[in-house]
Write a structure and sequence with these properties.
Structural class: alpha/beta
Helix content: 40-55%
Shape: elongated
Order of helices and strands: HEHEEHEHEHHHHHHHHHH
Number of helices: 14
Length: 291
């Protein structure tokens, strides 16, 4: 016959303590998938409860949507604080590099969301087996294993600046393809899921200049390239770069570069004496080769 302690262990639900590290605080929704078979508790703050606050959890579930430096360093800190409690890392953003980092950092299980029914069933079976072993043996009294923590993987986006660039990625791609056409800022903001005000402010923070100034620079760069490397008339270059009014093109060009498009083109060409000298040198070389 089984002992009373063994029977109680078979009837006991694993206690899962959830640390919500998502940006939209969506851990409660994920917890619902486990409440039937597990005792799920949400940590009030991103940390462990005090040892005298009740029984220690059987599993720490750290829920990420887009892991960042702050969240991953917290995982390492939790691992150091409670080395005997296994950690499951749930994440939406996934890369092979992140998975390797998690395993090397001592994470017991690494799961990519959304979680399929087969994967969830496999995880729950493994969890139940692990808990049975922990309940039968005094796992909590073991000495912590040697930590194996590497540097944070490069695929994790660590800065707010990168997040700003990611939010504007669709807009920048569109601008690069259509800057020679008329671009409406409201339409671009809508493409990024933002209000025009937020789009304008975020654009300035990310790139250091306003949206219209950025488009103007793109057009000027193309105009300079055409002035330097083509024989197109100045008026045609203005149209090609996205300026519908030749006089506005000339004014804007002078305001940006301090000279007119024609002056810019002439300044990039060698003077007539230089051209003549080069021509005489070439003729001399030909005469020497063919006396």
């Amino acid at each position: 016959m089984k002992s009373n302690s063994a029977t109680n262990n078979n009837q006991r639900k694993p206690v899962l303590l959830w640390l919500d590290l998502t940006h939209d605080r969506s851990a409660e929704e994920l917890m619902e998938q486990f409440r039937l078979t597990c005792d799920c508790r949400l940590a009030k703050e991103s940390g462990l409860p005090a040892r005298d606050a009740g029984p220690q959890p059987d599993m720490l579930c750290m829920h990420f949507d887009r892991p960042d430096a702050l969240g991953l360093n917290l995982l390492l800190e939790v691992k150091r604080t409670a080395p005997s409690i296994p950690i499951t890392m749930f994440t939406v953003q996934h890369s092979e590099e992140l998975a390797v980092w998690a395993m090397r950092s001592g994470v017991w299980e690494y799961l990519v969301l959304p979680l399929g029914s087969r994967e969830q069933s496999r995880y729950l079976q493994s969890l139940q087996h692990l808990c049975q072993l922990r309940w039968q043996e005094d796992i909590h009294a073991r000495k912590p294993q040697v930590e194996r923590c590497g540097n944070l993987p490069d695929s994790i986006r660590l800065t707010k600046e990168h997040q700003k660039h990611q939010a504007l990625h669709k807009a920048m791609s569109y601008i690069d393809q259509h800057y020679r056409e008329g671009i409406d800022q409201k339409d671009l903001a809508q493409r990024c899921g933002m209000t025009p005000f937020r789009f304008s402010r975020l654009f300035k923070e990310a790139y250091g200049l306003g949206f219209m100034e950025y488009v103007l620079r793109k057009r000027m760069d193309l105009a300079k390239e055409l002035l330097n490397n083509s024989q197109m008339p100045v008026t045609s270059i203005g149209y090609e770069a996205g300026f519908k009014d030749p006089s506005y093109f000339a004014r804007a060009f002078k305001q940006c570069l301090g000279c007119t498009p024609s002056e810019y083109r002439d300044a990039g060409r060698p003077s007539l004496p230089q051209l003549a000298s080069a021509s005489l040198h070439e003729d001399h070389q030909v005469l020497r080769a063919h006396p």
